[in-house]
């Protein structure tokens, strides 16, 4: 605080002397004032209690680095908050502002996770658990060629490569920025035995993507006649326009008879409203989530879509009890710990997501499903 008062007094003094200088002072001050004012204002913005407010107003940062440090300290459960706050106000030198230098992003995972409520879990571990749940018992081996549809930022491809060492993983995502992040990850992570190729493409246009990207099947060891052994899509298929069309295309690009489909997906647990305001709200809610309302089908309709697409031996497991509330709790905890790191608008988005997930958990309105199915015989 004392530094703040000194800076303020200096800025005030210099400003006043600009308006009421003596004759001799005028010439010396004229060159000194703009430089000094700029310097002191810079200090005010960077160094004083006004800083977080001013920085936020100027869009320079959303948070005072010291406060971020405090949040991180609390997240580790090592500080009693009242004492730590007053200790922070006594900071004379570095305080906790170097928290920024110690932050590390360990991945870009973004599925809803499979949560074990009996223990605290890191986000990435819940995401990995969901990937394992979807991809286990699919006979993925060193000869497999997986098509991963909606790969996010590529973490799941690296993880599948580590788990199963398939010969090849071809991934597609509709988002160029996620493709970019994934390419960076793949560059940094070498996975012996697995070639990972990632592309920007729309899941609802699989045949067009394959026709325009012949290198997908150009490997010498690709004996599958231009088809994949596995099509995987984790927490993504409900977005495709339409999912029913995607399922048909997935069957076409899979090896007949032995090709396997594996999904983590969302469907309705209760029938959708069919008319009036209810239907309008239903459509608006899903369109806000970029989910075509036509994809929101009941279990029977969903099974029918899989069969119509040509799949057999269909297994569907409902796991929503281990998904929605686990993620909601995690977002709540993470917001409490590090919510100040993100801009208020982003915080509101997570607040809404969290409330929505709690509501989904209570209302039992949606099923979160893991689907495994085998491709049927070749169709003409
Ligand atoms: C909830 S995220 C899951 C991402 C990833 N599976 C993971 O676990 O991190 C849904 C993903 O589906 C992708 N997606 C949505 N619509 C798509 C489409 N039509 N074609 C390809 N990818 C799509 C999004 O870009 C996003 O990465």
Descriptive account of the structure:
With 380 residues, the protein is of the alpha/beta class. The protein has three domains: 1-61; 62-104, no CATH class; 123-375, Vaccinia Virus protein VP39 (Rossmann fold), CATH 3.40.50. Helices cover 49% and strands 13% of the residues. The protein is built from 15 helices and seven strands. A seven-stranded mixed β-sheet has the order 3-2-1-4-5-7-6, sandwiched between helices. Strand 2, helix 9 (176-188) and strand 3 form a beta-alpha-beta unit. Helix 1 packs antiparallel against helix 2 and helix 14 runs antiparallel to helix 15 (344-363). The longest helix is centred in the first third of the chain and has 25 residues, at 23-47. The model has no long low-confidence stretch (mean pLDDT 85). Bound molecules: S-adenosylmethionine.
Counting structural domains, the number is 3
Would you count the extended β strands for me? 7
* Main β-sheet, spatial strand arrangement: 3-2-1-4-5-7-6
Structural class: alpha/beta
Given the structure, what is the number of helices?
A: 15
H/E element order: HHHHHHHEHEHEHEHEHHEHHE
Shape: globular
Rg (CA only)? 28 Å
Distance between the termini: 79 Å
CATH class of the largest domain: Alpha Beta
How much strand?
5-15%
Hetero ligands: S-adenosylmethionine
Helix percentage: 40-55%
- Unreliable runs, pLDDT <50, ≥5 residues? none
CATH topology of the largest domain: Rossmann fold
Give the mean pLDDT: 85
Largest sheet: 7 strands, mixed
Provide the CATH superfamily of the largest domain.
Vaccinia Virus protein VP39
CATH hierarchy: architecture of the largest domain? 3-Layer(aba) Sandwich
